[in-house]
Amino acid sequence: MFWRIFRQLLRASRGRLTVALIALSSGAAISSALLNINLDAEQKLTHAFRTLGANVVVAPPSAGSDAALADAAIMDRIVGPGAPQIVAAAPYLYVAANAGTQPVILAGTWFDQVAKMNSWWKVVGGWVPSRDDKLHCMVGQTAARQLGLMPGSQIDLRAAERHAILTVSGIITAGGAEDSQVFTSLDVAQNLADLPGLVSLVQLSVSGTPSEIEAFTSHLAGTLTGLDVRAVRQLAAAEGSILARISGLIFWTITLILVLTTLGVLASMAALAMERSRDVGLMKALGGSVDRIMRLFLAEAAALGIVGGTIGFAIGVVLARWIGGRVFGVPISPRLAVFPVTIALAVAVALTGALPLRLLGRVRPAEILRGE
Known about the structure:
Layout: H1 2-12, H2 14-49, E1 56-59, E2 70-71, H3 74-78, E3 86-99, E4 102-109, H4 111-117, E5 122-125, E6 136-140, H5 141-147, E7 154-159, E8 162-173, E9 181-185, H6 186-193, E10 198-199, E11 201-206, H7 210-223, E12 228-231, H8 233-285, H9 290-327, H10 338-353, H11 355-358, H12 365-369
Parallel strand pairs: 4-9, 6-8
Antiparallel strand pairs: 1-11, 1-12, 2-10, 3-4, 3-7, 3-11, 5-8, 6-9, 7-8
Helix pairs in contact: 1-9, 2-8, 2-9, 2-10, 8-10, 9-10
């Protein structure tokens, strides 16, 4: 009997229930999309930050000398199977050299790692294709302007009694000290400076939250005894701040959406309560208890929440993928853990919005039967 009356109630109030279902589905869709974005935003933003340069630096301890160097073999100790957090690792050897009669700072490095770490650099021409390329170099825009260079130009680099003639592969615009430097492969810089197997420092791009980066830095400092391992705190702090603000924004947006959805459901249920007063009076006159009648209406509200939450989750997945493509350039991956949360939120909103139906418990059968 309970389920028969339940089905009849759904059929008899399709208009009001459809309005409530639309409100619930809309709120659930936005909540589902924002929850999926929140769960995936940290990974997407962390990946995006990893293209903005190094956030950990390994260097010899400062001893009042600019010539402090480290053994290049430390790269094997830094980048290994136990370092899954490292996105890119680039060793650097800085050498004072001359290009013709102009003094320049030469930076020997691994181009494949620098390109991965600094993909935001503007490059006119192209990157040097290999870390072991001994025929090409890249020049910062300031140095290129002073030396009159462009992609395809030849540059004669000299340091002490050694020299190398290289072809300019690309002109770099980085907005920093790199604009005044000439970049070669690490082997070329070591040969020109006669410093085989030595580097000035190592720049690392490490993924993770600020606390995870700090933990990784501490672990690496314990492994590389005698070297200075430090995090670029400004970048790590910026990551943490942005992630916290985005999470806070999403939380309060979801809260506001759920409040507005609840108000929409309340309006529909209030009108529905007015329509059902005669039905409730008749059920009470036939012996129906208030608890049983309320369970009937609450079951109806819960069913609305489940259906609305399911529809909203499906729409939210599509919406999250669209937003992810617009904001991050890649679609947001749907998380199944969001589905039960969306259902729970929709059911909670539906039950809260069904509060006006509780007033039907005060209906007096006598007044209804008299037509009052």
